[in-house]
Write a structure and sequence with these properties.
The protein is of the alpha/beta class. The chain has 13 helices and 14 strands. The strands form four sheets. An eight-stranded parallel β-barrel has the order 3-4-5-8-9-12-13-14, surrounded by seven helices. Strands 1-2 form a two-stranded antiparallel sheet.
Length: 337
């Protein structure tokens, strides 16, 4: 049903009431990404005009499903530009949407599927200044949350007082919330280090966006700790880049795929909705991001809100989890397509 209301949560100490599902634009802002099956989803039409139309169709489907949280990033190709053009033609969405974006990676793929490198990382203060101006130029005052993209211990951004000062000033001058996203097997350690960052006695980070899914739940305890301190928690990659939509044909995954399919069937839902419902059922999760590339995927994903998660489904999770190092090694081998 168009514009159907969906549950909301308070995004930590930001106080913002946000929809439990959000739409992420990583899969529709650039011609190549690492989601499995993306070639079948997008076909061969991937020029900017085609991708903008696709992004708008996905955003429309998310809006019709009741989703009011949108996540972009500087490195998602033209995702911010596509979001900006969508918001300009939809005044109600421009008012009602909660928009988050990220800085710290740059898209360098030249709009090519076969690019040798698709994105590069730089968490220095000069990159922040430049990318914030770029973001502001594309989606203006719509951005309410600005996040460090994939902060890691190795990048040094959590020790960079210049970056911390500039982010804290952005909160004061532009009234933006400040967050960070995480990646890799050391997410929990990185998050705990981030929670200790303060500027003039005030915690720097209002939110955290992390990878949590039934294959890689290792950051869960740290996220629960963060949520207890008032940090808003956003989950990304809840479908493990398509693996949990059962698009992973690796024989080593067959046993887990069978278990997911069986549990989804028992609950009367689809594998993707089952995996998303698992994330939604965590009491410390505020928002779960969808990575859909088609309107049909948005609608299928949104059915997760109707899943009656139960003890048997919870019991299955222990049999689905992979070792973090193995999970991230598998992810690193996914090809851009």
């Amino acid at each position: 049903m168009p514009n159907a209301p969906i549950p909301r949560a308070t995004l930590g100490r930001t106080g913002e009431r946000v929809t439990r599902l959000g739409i992420g634009l990583a899969a529709v802002g650039r011609p190549a990404y690492i989601n499995l099956g993306r070639g079948d989803d997008l076909g061969v039409e991937r020029d900017r005009a085609a991708m903008e139309a696709r992004a708008h169709a996905v955003l429309d489907a998310a809006w019709d499903a009741g989703i009011r949280y949108v996540d972009a990033a500087r490195s998602y190709g033209d995702a911010e530009a596509f979001l900006g053009s969508w918001l300009r033609t939809r005044p109600t969405a421009a008012v009602e949407s909660f928009v988050a974006s990220k800085w710290g990676y740059e898209y360098v793929g030249g709009w090519r599927l076969d690019a040798a490198i698709h994105e590069t990382k730089d968490h220095g203060v000069e990159t922040f200044r430049r990318q914030w101006e770029e973001t502001r130029g594309l989606i203006g005052d719509h951005v309410e949350l600005y996040q460090i993209h994939s902060a890691t211990l190795e990048s040094g951004v959590l020790e960079d007082s210049d970056v911390h000062e500039e982010l804290a000033q952005l909160r004061v001058d532009a009234h933006k919330r400040i967050g960070l996203s995480l990646s890799g097997p050391r997410q929990a350690e990185t998050l705990r280090r981030a929670l200790a960052v303060r500027v003039r006695g005030t915690p720097l980070f209002d939110t955290v966006q992390a990878t949590w899914n039934v294959l890689e739940p290792s950051v869960g305890r740290a996220l629960a700790e963060a949520h207890a301190t008032g940090v808003g928690v956003i989950v990304k990659e809840a479908l493990a880049n398509g693996r949990l939509a059962l698009r992973d044909d690796d024989p080593a995954f067959a046993g887990r795929a069978a278990l997911i399919a069986a549990e989804a069937a028992r609950l009367g839902t689809t594998p993707d909705a089952f995996a998303l419902a698992a994330a939604l059922s965590r009491p410390w999760v505020d928002v779960v991001l969808l990575g859909a590339a088609t309107p049909a995927q948005v609608r299928s994903n949104a059915a997760a809100l109707e899943v009656a998660w139960d003890g048997a489904a919870e019991g299955a999770l222990a049999r689905l989890a992979e070792e973090p190092e193995a999970y991230w090694a598998r992810r690193s081998r996914l090809s851009w397509s």
